[in-house]
Amino acid sequence: MADKIHVAVLGYGFMGSTHIDAWQMINGCIVKGVWGRDFSKTKQFAAEKGIRAFPSLNEILDDREIDVVDICTPTYTHAEYAVQALKAGKHVIVEKPMALSLRDADRTIHAADKSGMKLMVAHVLRFFPDYMQVKKMVEEEKIGEICQARAFRGGPFPAWSPWFGDVVKSGGVAVDTAIHDVDFITWISSSTAHRVYAKITRNVNSDSSKYDIAVINIRYGDGLIAFIEASWAHPPSFPFTMKLELDGTKGVIALDNQSPVPISLYTKDANHRYAPESLPWKPMIHPFPLDPFYRELSHFVDCIRRDENPMTDGRVSRRSLEICLAAVKSSEIGKPVNLPLEV
Amino acid sequence: MNATFRVGFLGVAHFHAESYAKALKKIPGCEIVGVYEEDTALGKRFGEEFKIECYRSISELLDKNLDAVIITSENSKHHEHIVQALDNDLHILCEKPMTINIRDAEDVVSRVSKKGVKFQMCYVMRYHTVSILVKELIDSGILGKPILMVGTNKLNRALPLLRNWFTNLSLSGGGAVMDHTVHLADLMRWYTEDEVVEVYTEIGKNVNKAISVEDNFFTTVRFGSGLIGHIDGSWTYASGFYTWGDVTMEIIGTDGAILMDAFRQNVYLIGDKHPGDRLSWSYYGCDPDLEMVRDFKRCIQEDKPPRATAKDGLEGVRISLASYESSKRGEPVQLHQL
Ligand SMILES: NC(=O)c1ccc[n+]([C@@H]2O[C@H](COP(=O)([O-])OP(=O)(O)OC[C@H]3O[C@@H](n4cnc5c(N)ncnc54)[C@H](OP(=O)(O)O)[C@@H]3O)[C@@H](O)[C@H]2O)c1
Question: Global pTM?
Answer without folding.
Answer: 0.88
